[in-house]
Amino acid sequence: MSPPLSLVEVETRGAIAVLALNRPDKLNALNAALLDALEDALDAQEKSDARAIVISGRGGRAFSAGADLKEIGVFPPSGIDKRNRRVRALFNRIAESPKVTVAAIEGIAFGGGFELALACTFRVAGRNARFSFPEIRLGVMPTYGGTQRLPRLIGENRALELILTGAEINAETALEMGLLNRLAQPGERAIDTGCRLLEPIAPTSLAAQRYARRSVTAAFHEDGDRIEAENTEAVSMLADAREGIAAFLEKRTPAFVDR
Fold it and tell me: How far from 90 is each of 115, 145, 213, CA to CA, in Å?
């Protein structure tokens, strides 16, 4: 008997954990079992020594095609609402993860798969990547935070056009819009591009990263200046701040400990 399929495969690359969605025959569509597996993998990696996380999709054809509509079709309306709240909470958790996350996208990132990518700190893509919110053609709308995160990245007008037309864009267009941080070089896998993006980030203080990310997000709020000042004060009190300055003065590599 073959071993049971691992719906999220985990690979360690130095200080970086790579989590790969593993339903390639279903284009990594997000069913309940895959969501459970992703949550379990995040639990493990947030407690591990990994200092950054890459989320990818197995198979090369899809990062994720989005919600598994066959599964959703069997839910009563109350069940759909419960599922939506659960997935939204999971994606919010990824957005607020104590460790920086990168979506490494090959193939399609549609619907909920697109929203999963948007929840990550950064996004990189292979040249075969395609993005779309097709929900409007089904009489619904993005459900898991996409209407909030996409405008912050590419602006309200462009976000509205993508959401209301259901148009599909390629990787080059996504990069031009500011949706992507990097595009993989020809012949390079998106996972490798994502790990390379994380190389200078992973060794730095996790606590300082977290406060900096919160401050940047607060730039979109009217009290952003206050939040930045509060976070700056909090960072200055960390052991990592004292260690970083001491290491600089002593010309050595810092040993950060705050999480």
Answer: 11, 11, 18
What is the assigned CATH class of domain 8-198?
alpha beta
Q: Where are the domains of the chain?
A: 8-198, 206-249
pTM of the model: 0.92
Q: Is 115 a catalytic residue?
A: yes
DSSP-assigned letter for residue 5: P
46 is catalytic: no
Q: What is the pLDDT of residues 186-237, one digit of tens each?
A: 989 999 999 999 999 999 999 999 999 989 888 877 677 888 888 888 888 8
Residue 228: Cβ-neighbour burial (10 angstroms; 0-12, 13-18, 19+): middle
Question: Torsion over CA of 110, 111, 113 and 116, rounded to 10 degrees?
Answer: 140
Of 135, 176, 222, 243, the active-site residue reads 135
Q: How many Å apart are CA 57 and CA 105, to the nearest integer?
A: 7
